[in-house]
Amino acid sequence: MNKFIPFAIFCAISSALYVGLSLNPSNIPSELINDPVPEFALSEVGSDIASFSSETIATEEDVIIMNFFASWCAPCYVEHPFLMELKNRGYKIYGVAYKDRARNITRFLEEQGNPYDHVGADENGRVGIEFGVYGMPETYIIKNGIIKYKHIGPILEMQFEDEFIPILESARR
Amino acid sequence: MIVELGHFALILACLLSFIQGTFPLYGALKNRGRLMSLSAPAAYGQFFFVAISFFALMYAFIVSDFSVVNVARNSHTLKPLLYKISATWGSHEGSILFWAFVLALYGAMVAYFGRRLPKSFHVTVLAVQAMVGFGFYLFLLLTSNPFERVFPFPMEGNGLNPLLQDPGLAFHPPLLYMGYVGLSVTFSFAVGALIEGRVDAAWARWVRPWTLLAWCFLTAGLSLGSWWAYYELGWGGWWFWDPVENAAFMPWLVATGLLHSAIVVEKRDTLKAWTILLAIIAFSFSLLGTFIVRSGVLTSVHAFATDPERGVFILAFLFLVIGGSLLLFAMRADRLQAGGLFAPVSRESMLVINNLLLSVAALVVLFGTLYPLLRDALTGDKITVGPPFFNMAFGFLMIPLLLVMGLGPSTNWKRADLVGLLGRLKFIMLAALFATIVIFYIADGGEIMAAVWLGLGLWLLLSTLFEWAERVKLFKPGSIARIFRQPRASMGMSFGHLGLAIAVIGISGTSYWNIEHQDIMRYGDSASIGGYEVTFRDTDGIVGPNYTAVKAIFDISRDGKAVTTLEPEARVYMTPPMPTTEAAILSTLSADLFVVIGEANNKEHTEWAVRLYYKPLQIWLWAGVAIMVLGGLISLSDRRFRMGAPTRGYK
């Protein structure tokens, strides 16, 4: 047996690991990219008034951001300031309150600020299933009812200016 | 103040590890007695300071000192004391500090218990141990300082992931780390032997207790983690082939192989290079496990701390330690002359087969764990390798392993008679076959693989008992005395194999005969599962120290007689806000009944999603693993490993 074989195998594994370090494991491709949004209709949190639906989204001329969130989701608290920043920059954000009660959502938005133009209540999580939501939070960039981009997990500082804003802007064009 | 003291002590421990890793080693090479005598005191001092450091951090957690970043991120004043303490090793920084602490603890133990070892060898082993420790101290001080302060400090902490707030998980990481890090001793012994260029029976005898100790901790840690997943995650599974589980399982497989090959080195003075290689690989898997958990290179439900920069540091460190030792192995392995020869059918051959199968199994698990990463790196495809791959590939390797395990202990050293052996054991085979058929008949059939695993489990159970009965000459005069006069190592082996047999039987039951029942239930509704009648009585709101919960009450009856009530909970923790399930389990020798309450299905909260699982022989799995650990401990108490036993054959 050649005594260098274990060393060679180890070198191969560690170079693969090195490459792996630069990959983002939460970057999971979505089947929905460049497809129209799944059909859904939501009512505004805490009421029976229609909020927004796949139809109203399809009529939007400008790019919109659709954000699944919940008051029970810890990373959503981390993400929240970035959504506020997006609102300040004039983007339209639709929120989907995933599996959460109206009372908790209202309190969450009172405490943290409300970046959303509409907040639809997805209390039983059906819309989440339609979108194939992996985990909270999840963010979609939509133009003319077509999904352009999907981000799983919170939008964080390092991605915000370098990744998220450019994608938003290129989708807008 | 105490926090700064901890930080300072950590720096001192780092410096001492550097001293311990260099000067005495130079002294050993140049034969300078005074330099060599630095070694043991440095090991004790290093342990003393890292212990101060570790307990300083624990103190910061206990008093909730949120000016420490690590405490603010991972603790909360409302958390029960036990979880404040366990949060010390629950965070990334804390767990690495704990790793360094255990490493130094083992170093001090080697310094003390190994004091009768030949001086230069003792010094070399301690130097290797210290060099590994030095890497961890640097990692802590440069990239993951647990004592970092923050100003202005927050009034309240972020809390700890509620899934981790569980007694099972408070103790699971320490046990696992004792196992992981315990393999460092074996590693240091192996590298020391390569540096000195000699391996013999005495070497194997020194290494074995450390391997056994690490193996016992690993086994206990793994099973505690598995048990936690079983009752806390609430879907009734106990093993998921998750990358982090695999990371702990691979060193276990290799350590198990190492335990067996070290016997061959000790008794027959052969398989030396192989044993050294296994010792290096076992610890390499421990380090790789740390890398996988701490770098975020793989997606996993366990990836509690992920940070690419730390990943690069750990990878560089891995490359130095593992790459260096494998290179040393490549250059020095030829010096390790094989001793005793053996025939193709012999105890040695059986142990070689055991080693090959366990190593290939570890490779299969490694491949399955890293394959998605390799694919992603080479082609950009995102795939996952799931349980079907592991169950098939791993299971396929375990079938011959369990068959050979039944034969091995009854086989003679050097040369054995296969025909005679099979003749002696043929009644055992027939009995296992017959028992399998009977159980299949009682269970009213099942999948063919269920029969295979049940049959293998019974075969191992019966053949282990048979070998034991032959060895103690059961039913002949004096057999009672002989039972207790067996060498502890042999007793340990019997227990270890028996435990595995029982666990395999349990696995076949819970994997192939389980029943699952999901339903929306109203108050008063009943469901029947596995002969039990489960009636949904009521729900109740409760408030815990840092959570609120819905408690459901189920009346369980069997054949019209009330058995017990089960009260599963659906909890919502406050900080961080997160829902968890607390399953309620009725365990009996024949099966577990497992009840989980989900969400309310209507606004009035009178209809609830309920999941029921019936898991036959589940408790056999836990009992089997416990017996395996017991076997390891019995073997550890063998008198030839006891301190002060003569160390003949070296120098």
Describe the structure.
The complex is a heterodimer of chains A (173) and B (651). Chain A has 6 helices and 7 strands, in the order H-E-E-H-E-H-E-H-E-H-E-E-H. Chain A has 173 residues and is α/β, with parallel strands linked by helices. Chain A has helices at 5-21, 54-58, 74-88, 102-112, 126-131, 157-172; strands spanning 41-44, 50-53, 64-69, 92-98, 118-122, 138-143, 146-152. A 7-stranded mixed beta sheet of chain A has the order 2-1-5-4-3-6-7. In chain B, helix 8 crosses helix 11 (272-295) and helix 15 (418-442) packs across helix 16. Residues 300-305 and 643-651 of chain B have low confidence and may be disordered. Chain B has 19 helices and 10 strands. Chain B has 651 residues and is of the alpha+beta class. In chain B, strands 2, 3, 4, 5, 6 and 7 form a 6-stranded antiparallel beta sheet that branches. Chain B has a 4-stranded antiparallel beta sheet with strand order 1-10-9-8, with helices on one face. Chain B has helices spanning 2-30, 33-36, 39-62, 69-74, 81-87, 92-113, 119-143, 167-196, 201-232, 243-268, 272-295, 308-332, 347-379, 387-407, 418-442, 448-471, 479-485, 488-512, 618-636; strands at residues 515-522, 526-529, 532-543, 547-558, 561-566, 569-573, 578-582, 584-587, 591-600, 607-616. Chain B is globular. Chains A and B meet through helix 1 of A and helix 11, helix 12 and helix 13 of B.
Beta-strand level of the residues of chain A, as a percent range? 15-25%
For the biggest sheet of chain A, the summary is: 7 strands, mixed
Rg of chain B, nearest Å: 26 Å
Number of strands of chain A: 7
Can you give me a brief rundown of this structure?
The complex is a heterodimer of chains A (173) and B (651). Chain A is α/β, with parallel strands linked by helices and 173 residues long.
